[in-house]
């Protein structure tokens, strides 16, 4: 794209604001997505409001009552004392209903966000967990984000897609639906979730994607990604990410999967409690610095978000109206996917994003504070919001793909506007980000029992390896494993699955097939059987 050409479109856009985004030549050729685990906006970034009052964060006047309906019960104020959290606050469907509405049966519009303490107290009556969920990090504890949001774009109105736990929300990120799941459903897991994904749409348009994983790719929860044709899109993060970035060989859509298990050699860096947020900061820093130094930097958009709020308090009412079910599939609780989950942190990074030109903010404040803050979505409908489906929706615009995935991404806000204001990329983006300090003083506890999310990954491993046909599946697989054993089991399963895939490809099995392993007692890659997709 020549300078003159892009300048022409830039002027045109200013003169004619009804121009569709397709009219502008898009500067982004590579979108990198990193989904962290289980933290709300206020918990991670709420206190950034101190640095920029434009941010819809916290002031310290926010509170929850121990008993949501009893004004005389103890008040838990929102503090800045977040450190390292062990046990995990509640985050399943009913628990979140209680956090949002103050009870599992009430429905109050707008949502009062009043039951976080009460729900935490029901898990741990010592008040310790209640205090944890009412706490946020001081900006310096998350210093990598502190720099990123002063340089690039912070979204302070981005919600998780569904008010429930990890897997359904992760499914929304790349497919704009969980296909009716509000929890991890064993049957679906075995088969893999059948919906169409953004990966399929990119592939059909002749574009490339790549998954860079550490322990295991959670993207294998999508059935379609298990197909042989996508085998070569999976890469070991530690072996390949830096190399591919350095060579300028990153594909158009890159998914970075953090380490979901905490061991001494490879600490968990997904920010999931009880993992140290310091490790997550170091992962974000590494990905950023790798991209910044890549020859592809000038065409890159790097997006960081969190799958869900993980039981931590957030003060912004979760949207309850005008949210379309993606596909009309109801959950087992008769939930229609017509309200969103709790607000989560999201940051967009690109040399095409202005340092000092916030979107949709007050002119006066804009002149005082340079930080870009992206507030609510401006369409395509009056109820549209930013949520995880905004990722496939924006990817569709960036790459000019012909179709939406379903009704949800068609509705979700898109944010291509934030990188369509310049006619050349910035050259002042920092090369390096700060290194925050370790928060947890102790080493990883490898003997710890598996979290629910880790158990779900073990179940995925069992499916990939073929162990799921053993009678114990799914309720007992992983029950007796500790973190170290679980990680080894999962990594071995993934390795065998990919080995079997490579073997099948050599045998010229059709690219549309999925390798189905036999139980591990008998299975070797060479004995795997191949079934139809
Ligand atoms: C990125 O663009 C800037 C501004 O046009 C230019 O100075 C720089 O050399 C480019 N970097 C790369 C790696 O192409
Ligand atoms: C994040 O991870 C858990 C499992 O430990 C997962 O199942 C859940 O949905 C998410 N929430 C929290 C707070 O852990």
Write the layout of secondary structure elements.
Blueprint: H1 3-15, E1 30-36, H2 41-45, E2 63-65, E3 75-77, H3 93-101, H4 116-123, H5 128-133, H6 143-151, E4 153-155, E5 158-159, H7 166-175, H8 186-191, H9 198-204, E6 209-213, E7 234-236, H10 237-247, E8 253-256, H11 277-292, E9 300-306, E10 346-349, H12 363-368, E11 372-374, E12 386-387, H13 390-398, H14 407-411, H15 452-465, H16 483-506, E13 514-516, E14 529-531
Parallel strand pairs: 1-8, 1-9, 4-11, 5-12, 6-7, 6-8
Antiparallel strand pairs: 2-3, 4-10, 9-10, 13-14
The structure holds 2-acetamido-2-deoxy-beta-D-glucopyranose (2 copies).
Structure description:
With 533 residues, the protein is α/β, with parallel strands linked by helices. Among the domains are: 292 residues, Alkaline Phosphatase, subunit A, CATH 3.40.720; 80 residues, no CATH class. 30% of the residues lie in helices and 10% in strands. It contains 16 helices and 14 strands. Strands 7-6-8-1-9-10-4-11 form an eight-stranded mixed β-sheet, with helices on both faces. A two-stranded antiparallel sheet has the order 2-3. The longest helix has 24 residues. The N terminus and C terminus are likely disordered. The structure holds 2-acetamido-2-deoxy-beta-D-glucopyranose (2 copies). The site of one 2-acetamido-2-deoxy-beta-D-glucopyranose has 14 residues, from helix 15. GO terms for molecular function: hydrolase activity, acting on ester bonds.
């Amino acid at each position: 794209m020549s300078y003159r050409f892009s300048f022409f479109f830039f002027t045109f856009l200013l003169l004619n604001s009804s121009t569709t985004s397709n009219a502008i030549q898009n500067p982004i050729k590579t979108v990198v997505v990193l989904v962290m685990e289980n933290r709300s906006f206020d918990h991670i970034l709420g206190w950034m409001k101190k640095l920029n009052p434009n941010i819809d964060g916290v002031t310290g006047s926010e509170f929850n009552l121990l008993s949501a309906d009893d004004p005389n019960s103890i008040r838990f104020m929102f503090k800045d004392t977040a450190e390292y959290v062990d046990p995990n606050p509640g985050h399943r469907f009913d628990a979140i209903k209680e956090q949002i509405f103050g009870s599992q049966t009430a429905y109050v519009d707008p949502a009062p966000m009043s039951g976080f303490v009460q729900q935490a107290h029901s898990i741990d009556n010592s008040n310790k967990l209640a205090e944890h969920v009412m706490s946020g990090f001081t900006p310096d504890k998350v210093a990598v984000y502190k720099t990123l949001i002063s340089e690039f774009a912070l979204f302070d109105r981005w919600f998780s897609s569904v008010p429930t736990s990890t897997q359904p929300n992760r499914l929304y990120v790349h497919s704009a639906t969980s296909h009716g799941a509000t929890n991890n459903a064993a049957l679906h897991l075995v088969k893999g979730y059948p919906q169409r994904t953004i990966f399929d749409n990119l592939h059909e348009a002749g574009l490339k994607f790549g998954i860079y994983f550490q322990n295991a790719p959670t993207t294998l929860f999508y059935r379609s990604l298990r197909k042989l044709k996508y085998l070569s899109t999976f890469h070991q993060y530690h072996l390949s990410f830096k190399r591919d970035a350095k060579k300028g060989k990153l594909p158009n859509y890159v998914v970075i999967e953090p380490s979901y298990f905490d061991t001494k050699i490879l600490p968990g860096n997904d920010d999931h409690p009880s993992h140290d947020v310091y490790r997550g900061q170091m992962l974000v820093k590494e990905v950023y610095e790798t991209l910044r130094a890549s020859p592809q930097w000038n065409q890159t958009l790097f997006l960081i978000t969190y799958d869900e709020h993980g039981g931590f308090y957030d003060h912004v009412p979760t949207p309850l109206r005008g949210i379309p079910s993606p596909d009309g599939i109801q959950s087992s609780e008769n939930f229609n996917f017509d309200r969103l989950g709790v607000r989560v942190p999201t940051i967009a990074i690109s040399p095409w994003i202005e340092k000092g030109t916030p979107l949709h903010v007050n002119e006066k404040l804009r002149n005082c504070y340079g930080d870009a803050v992206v507030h609510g979505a401006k369409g395509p409908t009056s109820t549209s919001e930013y949520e995880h489906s905004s990722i496939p929706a924006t990817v569709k615009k960036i790459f000019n793909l012909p179709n939406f995935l379903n009704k949800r991404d068609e509705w979700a806000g898109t944010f291509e506007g934030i990188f369509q204001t310049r006619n050349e990329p910035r050259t002042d983006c920092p090369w390096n980000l700060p290194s925050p300090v370790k928060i947890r003083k102790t080493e990883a506890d490898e003997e710890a029992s598996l979290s629910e999310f880790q158990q779900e990954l073990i179940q995925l491993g069992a499916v990939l390896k073929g162990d799921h046909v053993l009678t114990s599946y799914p309720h007992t697989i992983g029950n007796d494993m500790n973190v170290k054993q679980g990680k080894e089991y999962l990594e071995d399963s993934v390795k065998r699955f990919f080995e079997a895939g490579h073997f099948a490809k050599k045998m010229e099995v059709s690219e549309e097939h999925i390798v189905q392993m036999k139980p591990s007692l008998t299975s070797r890659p060479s004995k795997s059987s191949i079934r139809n997709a």
